[in-house]
């Protein structure tokens, strides 16, 4: 796993020399990569507006990252469910997937593709002047991003709820296909010819414990009046019980059920037409879920990329605002993107602290109160630094 930060230092002689030392150190040790993070000239405004925007950016940054985490988590869960269920003939990325290993490989390929796209976008970041005109005040740019992310959040909740509803309904119907004879669907077990239904006669289905088969055969005809002699047939059985049919007159059904219950025979309520209808619904839901899977995944990928764009622009805004607040006017700073393997991150931070300690000697003092929005004392450095969580797809 990798860590990434966008940092900012003044664009003066001392800091420029420190940046060159940093680049030489990185080139010599291979602890990280370092590249310029381009941020355009934005409207500064007055100090009060900068402070207000700084607070709002901190809150919006956390909100946007939470939306990304939700999106990543949902994407992984949906794909993992597809892998576990082995959804045949699901159309994904233009190819029909029919094997579980294909689903797993497609999942890995998609996550890798999204991860590469994110890294590429962050590394080669260019401000989108069309979406976020630099002629607008900072507060307006913040509002544009807030509106975008909020709309994504609302639509995500709606689409996720719809997908979850279809999935839950299908799971409930599929569970009826499984389990014991007490609860499972009897579609494919009971045939129409097994049931006698006329003006006066009906057929009941009775669950009989395997150890009580003999008792059933001996007593079912006498459980009530008007039971058709020798009408009982064993239709199927599982490890604990068998399902028997018995034909009798409709007018004695209630009496027969009561007497059967006393003898520990369980009459199972059953309607062939209802069961057939549920089977049809299950098939339709299965098709609907497969279709939904494809469209939902495509939408999740699209909004994931959309929110990344908003999020990285937020980082750029935060770097700009905090640079002005900390380094003053005229605006004169340089922003860098650093990426490092997690195992090397601490060494890199130590080097940064030593190179730029002169910017704020109090940063090394543990009891100094940090008043920068969104940062705690342990996140405060002599230079400006905002982490970019590039491991969302791995950690979600």
Keyword list:
396 residues, alpha+beta, four-stranded antiparallel beta sheet, 9 helices, 15% strand
Descriptive account of the structure:
- Helices cover 53% and strands 15% of the residues.
- With 396 residues, it is α+β, with helices and mostly antiparallel strands.
- It has a four-stranded antiparallel sheet, sandwiched between helices.
- Strand 3 (90-92) and strand 4 form a beta hairpin.
- Helix 2 packs parallel to helix 4 (138-177), helix 2 packs antiparallel against helix 7 and helix 3 packs parallel to helix 7.
- The two termini are 13 Å apart.
Gist of the model:
This protein is of the alpha+beta class and 396 residues long. 53% of the residues lie in helices and 15% in strands.
């Amino acid at each position: 796993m990798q860590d990434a930060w966008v940092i900012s230092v003044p664009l003066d002689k001392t800091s420029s020399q420190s940046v060159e030392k940093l680049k030489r150190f990185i080139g010599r040790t291979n602890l990280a990569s370092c590249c310029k993070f381009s941020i355009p000239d934005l409207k500064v405004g007055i100090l009060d507006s900068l402070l207000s925007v700084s607070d709002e950016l901190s809150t919006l940054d956390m909100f946007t990252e939470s939306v990304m985490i939700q999106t990543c988590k949902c994407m992984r869960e949906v794909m993992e469910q597809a892998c576990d269920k082995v959804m045949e003939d699901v159309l994904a990325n233009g190819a029909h997937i029919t094997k579980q290993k294909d689903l797993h490989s497609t999942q890995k390929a998609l996550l890798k593709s999204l991860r590469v796209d994110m890294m590429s976008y962050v590394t080669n970041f260019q401000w989108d002047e069309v979406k976020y005109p630099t002629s607008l005040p900072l507060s307006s740019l913040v509002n544009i991003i807030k509106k975008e992310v909020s709309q994504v959040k609302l639509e995500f909740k709606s689409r996720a709820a719809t997908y979850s509803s279809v999935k839950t309904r299908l799971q409930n119907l599929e569970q009826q296909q499984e389990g014991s004879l007490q609860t499972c669907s009897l579609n494919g077990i009971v045939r129409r010819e097994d049931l006698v239904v006329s003006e006066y006669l009906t057929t009941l289905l009775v669950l009989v414990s395997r150890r009580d088969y003999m008792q059933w055969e001996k007593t079912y005809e006498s459980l009530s009046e008007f039971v058709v002699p020798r009408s009982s047939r064993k239709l199927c059985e599982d490890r604990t019980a068998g399902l028997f049919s018995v034909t009798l007159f409709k007018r004695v059904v209630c009496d027969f059920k009561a007497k059967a219950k006393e003898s520990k025979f369980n009459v199972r309520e059953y309607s062939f037409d209802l069961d057939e209808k549920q089977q049809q619904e299950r098939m339709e839901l299965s098709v609907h879920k497969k279709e939904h899977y494809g469209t939902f995944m495509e939408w999740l990928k699209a909004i994931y990329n959309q929110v990344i764009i908003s999020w990285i622009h937020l980082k750029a805004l935060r770097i700009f605002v905090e640079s002005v607040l900390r380094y003053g006017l005229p605006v004169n700073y340089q922003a860098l993107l650093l990426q490092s393997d997690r195992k090397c991150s601490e060494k890199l931070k130590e080097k940064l602290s030593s190179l730029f300690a002169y910017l704020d000697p109090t940063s090394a003092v543990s009891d100094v109160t940090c008043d920068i929005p969104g940062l705690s004392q342990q996140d405060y450095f002599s230079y400006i630094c905002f982490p970019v969580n590039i491991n969302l797809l791995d950690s979600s």
